[in-house]
Structure formats: structure tokens, C-alpha cells
Amino acid sequence: MLGLDVGTQSTKGLLIDAHQGLVVARSSKAYGLIEGLAPGAAEQDPATWEQAAVDVLQPLIVKAAELKRPIEALGVSGQQHGCVLLDSEGQSVRPAKLWCDTQTSSEAAELSQSLGRPIPTGYTASKVLWVARHEPDAWERTSQVLLPHDFLNLRLTGEASMEAGDASGTGWFDPRERAFDAQAMDAIDPALSAKLPGLTAAGEPAGVVSESGARRFGLAAGTLVASGGGDNMMSAIGAGASAPGISVVSMGTSGTVFTYADQPVIDPEGLIAPFCDSSGGWLPLLCVMNLTGVSEGVVRLSGRDHDDLTAAAAKLAPGCEGLLWLPFLAGERVPDLPDASGTLLGMRDQHLQGAMLYRAALEGTSLNLGWGVGRLNRLGVETSRVHLVGGAARNPLWRQILAAVLDAEVQVLAEPEAAALGAGLQAAWTLGRQGAGGGPSLQELSAPFLGGDAGSEQPDRELVQHYAEQAVDYAAALDKYYGVE
Fold first, then answer.
1. Measured in Å, how far apart are the chain's first and last C-alpha atoms?
2. Domain count for the chain
3. Is-cis flag, bond preceding 335, omega within 30?
């Protein structure tokens, strides 16, 4: 099986043996955002993802050929909320506005008011309204509105489709009914509904690789393409959260916390996303926009690497001698502060050194994540068992801080690319469902991949108490400086 994850910074691919529970080969291709845009704008050309997919697949296809094993199916994970606009020839009308684009905050606020429910700035809805309003010629030329993973599925199969997981992050989808919301679509633009593809049910394929897809990507025509989904939905599958009991913390440019639910979880303030998952259930999720980007900033500032800074920061006392970082360098989604900037409180002369700022970055981002998890808990969602995924999960100091802030045992999974793995496992599940016996469940498929290579981190009771007290200070600072209660 092949799993692709089309992310903000790179596309990653895994070749997996779903029967043996093994990752056979991996590949990746990095890229960046379009530079020189207006403040708040974050965009990429969908052609960048397509070419990255070609480059990532090539060595994986070669490896499968060397093993004399056919690729039976593939799945695509994609960054959520991106707005891909295609014309009648299937070509991009304009670059895709991404999840981290805050240029559309006024449109999001307007839609929230008109619909009577929160529409976060990151959602696709505000991007569609922004284009229709600011670039009417581009909107007029648009024949299809897709999400990033839908775009790759279209290029692979020649058929356009959406599925409930990724679609539930658009703002025009009803997660309770797992269906498009006609009222929301009309509020965004009356022409929107005609520009959307049909929905694919959980476990049903998006199609098969077309002849043109085979030529473009090097795959065999007729290979099954699973429905795929948003990166969080695919990470849930890859990290074992396709059934109740496991919460996942994904540590990347943004940070997410999510878990499986067998019914919708609706936050009246909209901070916890009421997503569907990509297996037929639901995936209540919180997303912070500032996680590894904050510590990366300290790395750039200090000229020291993560290992060096981590070792030095681990020798400092928790709390950084009163230094508290409200880490909103890119605005924020939880709490909902799209126009916020970061704030350092309690600065003293001794704080102006790399290790102190680095620890403050880890603590500030973790406290903000903990603030969001508290809201998740108050909605009845438990987070007592946590699987960590993403590159930053390897940082031992960050794991220790997170275990204490969340007061939960955390386990680092052996496979860091949970989204690509989940896409491959979903492909295996979908392929199995085509047979008479129905095939193995997602839980059965994911189980062999869930071993922890770094063991688990138990919360230190003294640290739990310390960060519980610091969380009170953090909440007070949010109220004082940002008006967040």
C-alpha cells in the first residue's frame, strides 16, 4: 500500500506492507509558501503538490518493483482547509489559500454572524467568500472547489469527490448529518453548491488510477485510490484513534489534539472543531496555530540546534524564573485570536539567552495546548491516554512538559509520519471492503504499527502541580492582554 501526506512544508510518502505491519520504504519532498504576499496571506500553487507527489512516489514505486510486489492501493492525506479553485479545464484559477491564511478573518467573522455559529478564519468558507468578493473574475472562472487532498485524488483518478472528514473543515458541511449544508453554501455564495463534487462514503474508494494518472504518477492504471482525507483524520487512523480510548497530539507547525467519538461533539463557541473522521465516526479536534514554529524561531535567533538547546533548557527550573510566553506569533485559532501577536511577560536581563527562551517556547506552547485541552475535557472528551506524533514528539524535554501539563501518560509512536501511514492503512481497509469478507478493521490494521520506540512518559507529580499553577497565570494573562476568559 502507498500512503501520501501532502502537507504545508513537504509531501511525504510511505510504502507499507499492511499484512506484516511494516514500513517498507519512505520518501519526501520539501517546498515552501509563495513569498511576497500581502500580510496574513498564505498560499501555495497546487501544481507544487502534484509535482511533489510525482517525486515522492517514484522511489517508492521503484522499491515495490524491486521486491516484485504490486502496489494494490493508495490513499492521500492532505493539509486541511485549503481552497483549490479549478476552471472548466481542471486548471488552477489562482493559488490555493491555506489553513494558516488569516487574510480572510473579516469574512470569517461575517459568516459566523450570518450563520449564527462560529466559522474559524482557517476554514475554507471564508476563503471562498474572500475570492468571490476580492477576485470576482477568478470566482466566475471557477468550475470546481476542492480541498488539497481532493485535488490529488482528481489528478490520480480523473474524478472529483469529497469525503466527510476533510469536508467537515470547510464551514459548509453539517457534521451531525454528514452532509453539505445548503444554508451555509448559499450564505457563502449562491454559486458554491454547483461547484462542489459529490461525497464519497466512508470506506468507499475515490476511484482508480486513470490512464492519464498512470502516465503522470508512474502507477498502474486501475490501482484503487481510497477516499483519503484531511491530515488529522489520516493521523487518527495511523495513530490508533479510529476507536474510543486514545487521544492524539500531533506536533508540527500547528499542533492538534483529537480523539475518536461515536457521536458529534459540538462546541457552542467553535473552538473545538466538530469534525467527522474518515472511517464513519467523529473526530472532535482542537488546533493551535503556534507550536514548533515558536521553538524554530529560537533556533534561528540563537544559531544553536534543537539538541543543544534542549539539553541546556532541561537544566533550567520549570517556569523560567517567571518568564511567560504567550506564543501567538502567527495569530491563533485556540483561543480564537487570528490577529494576535506574541507576548513575552516577566522579561529580565537573565532571560535574554537561548536556553531560557527555548524553554519558555516549549512551556508557552504547551500551556496554550493545555488551555485548549481543558475546553475539550469540559465538553466530555477524555484525554487520559495520549499518543504523540510528529517530529517534535522526539524532544524529551517537550514530552516531559506535555505529560505534566496534560497530566496524562504520553507515548511516542514508532512511526512519526502518522498521516501518511493512516492514508496507507485506509487504502488497505478500503481494498479489503471490496471483497466478500469485508477485510480487517482499521483497528486491526493499525495495531502492528503502534509500538512506541521511546516508551511512555509518566507525568511527574511535582511538575503537574507546578504547571497547574502556571496554567492559572497563563489564563489570567489571556484575559488581561487579549480579553479571553
1. 47
2. 1
3. yes
Per-residue pLDDT of the chain (485 residues; tens, 9 = 90+): 999 999 999 999 999 999 999 999 999 999 999 999 999 999 999 999 999 999 999 999 999 999 999 999 999 999 999 999 999 999 999 999 999 999 999 999 999 999 999 898 889 999 999 999 999 999 999 999 999 999 999 999 999 999 999 999 999 999 999 999 999 999 999 999 999 999 999 999 999 999 999 999 999 999 999 999 999 999 999 999 988 888 999 898 889 999 999 999 999 888 999 999 999 999 999 999 999 999 999 999 999 999 999 999 999 999 999 999 999 998 998 998 988 999 999 999 999 999 999 999 999 999 999 999 999 999 998 888 899 987 788 899 999 999 999 999 998 888 889 999 999 999 999 999 998 778 999 999 999 998 755 567 899 999 999 999 999 999 999 999 999 98
* Inside any domain, residue 13: yes
Three-class DSSP category at 370: helix
Residue count of the chain = 485
Which among 241, 196, 273, 177 has a CA at the least distance from the CA of 411? 241
Question: Residue for cell digits 487574510?
Answer: 103
Distance from C-alpha of 361 to C-alpha of 230, rounded to nearest angstrom: 28
Q: In angstroms, how far is CA 73 from the centroid of its own chain?
A: 23
- Amino acid letter for position 402: L
231 is catalytic: yes
- Which amino acid appears at position 288 of this protein? V
Query: Which range marks the domain in which residue 146 is found?
Result: 2-232
Q: Which has the closest alpha carbon to 236: 203, 259, 255?
A: 259
Which string of DSSP letters, residue by residue, matches 101-135? Answer: --TTHHHHHHHHHHHTS---TTSHHHHHHHHHHH-
The single residue of 5, 166, 181, 231 carrying the catalytic annotation is 231
Alpha carbon distance 449, 20 (integer Å): 10
For residue 61, give the CATH number of its domain: 3.30.420.40
List the grid coordinates of 269. 463557541
How far is Cα of residue 25 from the mean position of the Cα atoms in its chain? 23
Cell numbers linked to 110: 461575517
- 341 phi and psi angles, rounded to 5 deg: -120, 165
